[in-house]
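Re: the multi-chain job from yesterday

Posting the exact lines I submitted so nobody has to dig through the queue logs.
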Amino acid sequence: MRDKYDKKTLFLEIFAILLALLFLVPFYFVIVNSLKSFSEILVDAAALPNKFLFSNYVKVWDILNFPRVFVNSLIITVFSNIGIVIISSMASWKMVRTPGNFSKILFIFFVSAMVIPFQTVMIPLVKLGGMLGIMNSIPGIIIMYFGFGVPLSLFLYHGFVKSVPVEIEEAARIDGCSQFAVFWRIVFPLLKPITVTVIILNTLWIWNDYLLPLLVLQDESIRTIPLATSSFFAQYTKQWDMGLAALVMGITPIIIFFLFLQKHIIKGIAAGSIK
Amino acid sequence: MESTVKKNSNTENNTTIKTTKKTSKKMKKFLSYAAFVGPALLFFIVIQIIPFFMGVYYSFTSWNGVSSAVEWIGFDNYKQIFTNDPKYYDSFEFTTKFMFAAVVISNIIGFTFALILNAALKTKNVLRTVFFLPNVIGGLLLGFIWQFIFVRGFSAVGDLTNIDFFQLPWLGDASTAFWGIVIVFAWQISGYMMVIYIAALQGIDTSLIEAAKIDGASLYQMITKIIIPLILPAFTICFFLTISMAFKIFDLNLSLTGGGPFNSTQSVAINIYQEAFTYNNYGVGSTKAIIFFIIVAVFTTVQVMVTKRKEVEA
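And the result, structure tokens for all chains:
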């Protein structure tokens, strides 16, 4: 298949480019119309704006309290990621290095929970969260993400640790390193490729998550981007001029993240799914 | 005599030292296991496993979420749901239909993209990025974006071109709203599936393809007889992912149609959410959630078993 560039390939290429343009059309509509006045959108949504209007963005920036919600989303995503990486890499390493029935059963216990839909645990979780005092707080939701993130991340680490040679660790043990030192100084750096995958998968999930924040975060000051966007739409129904500006603002951070790290992301997604 | 006693006590001493040494070693081993595995296990149990079993319990109660009294009512909730809850039944019907349409379409598109991008195109990397792009946007924002496309964008294109497709009522009508959600889901997920299929295609031994070419196999034969059988594991994964994502659809559904028109596109996840948090029927909501869990578990296990068996046969 990887042969010379002939006419057939050229046609295929043109076809693929047209498809890609078609794929991007929704972005065209959203961006173009976010720069128009409301009446101009109603006249013709397909045309370019007569004059670029940035006032929508200025208004929405304040209504959404964008810097605030952006920072909230960022804090939740970053700290959830750190915690998930630490606890699941440690657990999976120990489980792989302690063969036996107990580790095996524990692994199955973790992994089989992946079939539990979030909707099945959400109702009691709200009750339990209230009892534990972790509702309506950013540290609280981060703790919840630890719990929900563990199964998949542990599964990915578990598969990877198996391929890491034991000999290096044994040598370090003989030299008198403690278990923690062996793990953090020697093993963890070797896990970097799968750590990247784990972080990418968890970031896309947590950053975009809507339902858990909806249940947990009530105060306006701790809302995330998806929460703020949905309450904006509930309040300003059909006011597309501002609504579209809100959407563009909402998707920009994650798209920038993606474009910067796209090679890692696409590789990581493929690696994470095939394992 | 004395000496033998001494000897005895000596050996006794030795064994106690040995056993304490042994237990302390065991203890140490246990402690280090607990230190490494404990945190993950703790968070996992508190956040997922305990609520899961609480949910099983609540499904047999009439709890309303507010009162402290939780009354045990046996299978009443289950009976009520199975005999007298057409809305829940409808939401299952919608979700199942949606799942089939969404799984088939997004996998066909994803696989086709992968085949195209596996050729020696010059713009391969850019195209891959473009096709994957919608997948990084969350379902909620995506739903709002497409609400605008369907309501304003399509009608604008329809006015320009007079093509019937763009002049349909889309989100305003039950059958087109259904396809509206399928389109958006496919737009979001196809790129993801494509990435998995590409990874699988790159693992194929090119000499097999060359051999088939020399034997004069047509493109269709090559895809169905050689490529697909060789990458069946990728199909298992992609079907598993799309089935579970489609079945649990919530955000996109909520922001695109809100379940409308007339609840015709209400997914099970939305139905459960409303039962619990809009109508405050936590008991019934829990029952619905447990039934949902059982169906999702059965569906995904059966699918994995079936496709795995195909893998073995191939």
